[in-house]
Amino acid sequence: MFLGFLSPALASLLLDSLTQTAVMVSVSAVLALVLGLPLGVLLVVTTPGHIFARPLLNRVVGTFVNLIRSTPFIIMMVAIIPLTRLLVGTSVGTSAAIVPLTVAITPLFARLAETAMREVDRGLIEAAEAIGATPFQIIVKVIIPEALPGIVAGVTVTLVSLVGYSTMAGTVGGGGLGDLGIRYGYQRFMPEVMLVVVAILVVLVQVIQLAGDRAAFAVNHRLARRRNSR
Length: 230
Hints:
The structure is a single chain. Helix content is 81%, strand content 0%. It has helices at residues 8-45, 55-69, 73-79, 81-88, 94-118, 122-130, 135-170, 176-186, 191-228. Helix 5 (94-118) crosses helix 7 and helix 8 packs antiparallel against helix 9 (191-228). The termini are far apart.
């Protein structure tokens, strides 16, 4: 077994840390998708000339998103400790790390989704408007389905970014692989632990990227077949 050179105690800690990282990444990703997709839609449809043009609202929301995205993650984790304590009752541990991870990654996914939806052919939107479709119908039946390959690619980027953020969360009490690497690999001078942590993170990112690329390819081909069948 590839963990054979580690003691049973360290191997157990490694598996626990991997589980914590998986929980942080998966829960934060789901929350970011649930919050970020509507935010991305809002950024698109409120632009001047779009189906729900609200320039002032668009500027306010865009400024808020940019403000969060420009804040370094480590600083954000400290800055929103009161919010973290309010929501989960503590500022340390895996559950506490999910809060800043979600806050940090949601604007990123929103911008990625916005970029994908902006590339939707305006002719399709105008055609939907011509037949009397409501803004909600246009969003659900035209904009999101047509932008789905780009949105899936955005999900992949979001997951990869979350893996990196989760390791930073570990350095300030968030648990996971980052915490294990710092406490044992760096502070206790155990390079073999750091090596295993880095190897697992590399494999994890590669798996996410490969799965995301295949999903985007599959969605893109289904979309192309649907277009050809019209």
